Amino acid sequence: MIRPEQVVVGATAEKAITLDGRIEALVFSGTDTHVSLRLQNGSTLSLRAPNTSHAATLLTEGQSVTVSLPIDALRVLPEETADAA
């Protein structure tokens, strides 16, 4: 599990997992833009891009992007917690 605000648009630090996907939806929400990303394996990833970043203003629906998931931001949930969600 990773919090949406921890996902970074673009390839970043060495200690991160990178994933490729296509933006399905963008929702402007004040200080952030909520992004729904369809990954290559068909699953969906939600992220929040701060509107103060230049990258957030360049995002468009249908755009292919790479996102980074910093290793230190990832959390493993116990199986019973994952099933309840």
Q: What is the terminal separation in angstroms?
A: 11 Å
Largest sheet: 5 strands, antiparallel
What is the string of helix and strand elements?
EEEEHEH
Structural class: mainly beta
Which homologous superfamily in CATH is the superfamily of the domain at 4-62?
Answer: Nucleic acid-binding proteins
Please write the CATH class name of the domain at 4-62: Mainly Beta
* Helical amount: 10-25%
Mean pLDDT: 85
What name does the CATH topology of the domain at 4-62 carry?
OB fold (Dihydrolipoamide Acetyltransferase, E2P)
| Biggest sheet strand line-up | 1-5-2-3-4
List low-confidence stretches: none
Q: Give the helix tally.
A: 2
CATH architecture classification of the domain at 4-62: Beta Barrel
Strand content: 35-45%
Domain Transport-associated OB type: 1-77
Protein name: TOBE domain-containing protein
Summarize the structure.
By secondary structure, the chain is mainly beta. It has a domain at 4-62: OB fold (Dihydrolipoamide Acetyltransferase, E2P), CATH 2.40.50. The protein has 2 helices and 5 strands.
Structure explained in plain terms:
- The protein has 85 residues and is mainly beta.
- It has a domain at 4-62: OB fold (Dihydrolipoamide Acetyltransferase, E2P) (Beta Barrel), CATH 2.40.50.
- The chain has helices at residues 54-58, 79-84, and strands spanning 8-9, 16-29, 32-39, 44-50, 64-70.
- A five-stranded antiparallel beta sheet has the order 1-5-2-3-4, with no helix packed on it.
- It is globular and about 35 Å long.
- The mean pLDDT is 85.
